[in-house]
Design goal:
The complex is a heterodimer. In chain A, 77% of the residues lie in helices and 0% in strands. Chain A is mainly α. The relative contact order of chain A is 0.15. Classes of the chains: A mainly alpha, B mainly alpha.
Chain lengths: 281, 315
Amino acid sequence: MKKIEESIFKFLMVSSLVLLIMALLSITIAVFVKGYNALSLKMIFTTPKGGYYLGKEGGILNAILGSIIIALSATILSFIYSFFIVFYINVYRYSKSNFSKSVRFLLDLLWGIPSIVYGAFGFAIMLIFKIPASMIAGIITLSFVILPIMARTMDETLRMIPFELKQVGFSLGATRLEISYKIMLRQSLPGILTAILLSFGRGLGDAASVLMTCSFSDSLPTSLLKPVATLPLSVFFQLSTPFKEVQERGYASAFVLTFLMLFVSLIARLCTKSLSKNVVK
Amino acid sequence: MDDNFFVRLKGRRVSNRFVRRFSYITSLSLFFLFALIVLMLSTEGIPLIREVGLKGVFFDKEWLPTEGKFGLFNFIFASFYTTLLALLFSIPVSILTAIYLSEYLKKKVAMYFKLIFDVLSGVSPVIYGFWGIVVIVPFVRKTIQPICEKLFPCRIFLSDNKSGFSVLSASIVLAIMVSPLIVSISEEVIRAIPFEIRQSTASLGATKWEIIKKVLLKRARGGIFAAIILSFSRSIGETMAVLMVAGCQIKGTPISFFDASYPLPALIANTFGETMSIPLYKSAIFLASLVLLILTLLGNFIGWIILLRIEEEQS
């Protein structure tokens, strides 16, 4: 009887693992098969012409460039912000002090806030200061969305650094600033890079916050003060049209988006390996 | 020692102090940012409650912005309906997977599976929405709905919405989106249970399954609960994927699995552009965001407190 129960549950466990893997595989296959067939080089290198969403000529270059610019700038902004926070709570304060713990907890809470709420927050501020939908608004809002991801991932690597390394620094008479950039930074370089690429990937894929703050545009991103197109929104808009050709292009755009994100995540893993040769274990 | 040494020493101390103060202010500004988010959404959202009353907002089913009726009930109900259904699908599957990964597979093999989950949980929500439109919605429309209608002709399975864009499609997509989160947290919690406990139970003559059922699951209860709470707040705030597959029609309260559903985040994303002209409409959208904010914060607060306590017990 015991045996039967165990084998039933073992069967259930294997089938649920298979089910999950199958579902995730089916996403990848759907994107690659549907998208690859619809993809053409011309689409990547042209901007939408008149009537693009009715099935006329054009491409998604505006969205690809817009997404990369917005995600990159937001990553840089939130990197600078979280860099100071993370080094402060791990070097200037002890990692286990109450202050560090509460900052960490706050970051976890911020991580859990959905991106549409950040979008609404950005939108509220824009309404108060009468700022129209613009690239700069999108960049700032997106940087709030990815800030907790960046900070918490960096924090996890800094926390793992053995305390003895810091101690050695102190015994040589180094200030905490010197310990930060001469020991901790070098030690956590792979982790920091992973954090950056992870947040960049998240920034590329986020749609809800940029929908509310920088709207959409059919021209190339040229000014910080104008609306700008992003790739996830481009996928969304193309898929929600009733026209077959436009939907096909939506599949192709989804392919480009997935490809970009997987590429970033692959680079993250490769870099982590090659950068960790300086790390003392 | 020449004078130069002291000059340099002073420089080092000054720059150290400067960075210390600057970073302290930066860290504190995080609390300020958090307060600002809560404050902004409250000041923008509360006027509607003052105007229409708590009951009118949360229990009124009518949503007619042009006539001044802002009942959020249907949207909140749809949010809970879709999310809870998604959790119903995803909890058993994820927990079984987590047990299998931590107890039956070697750590290295389990790592590969977790890597796959990690990479795919980072993929854009829009891609999940795309998958929903291409795979799940046709599947629901062509296979599940006709079968269910024939087999169980009761209110839950009957609907005049035949498009496939429904509560069920949205919850299947959400279930797949949040499963990696539940799997990875539960797996870590189960794996962290000390080996001695397994050993001593085994020495009493328990089989592997008995150890899992009677000891490990009981000890990991808190962590698994935290994982569920966290994934609840993740999926209730999910916008784009749900917006793409849920149907999003204002058509009364969704009751059947195949009714179109219109959850809160989708409402915000769809209507924020039209709200400029009517002040109360604007307020309603921010109130919806405030409700989402409170729900997700509550979930995250409970979830992380539990996980932190487990972490402290272990160290």
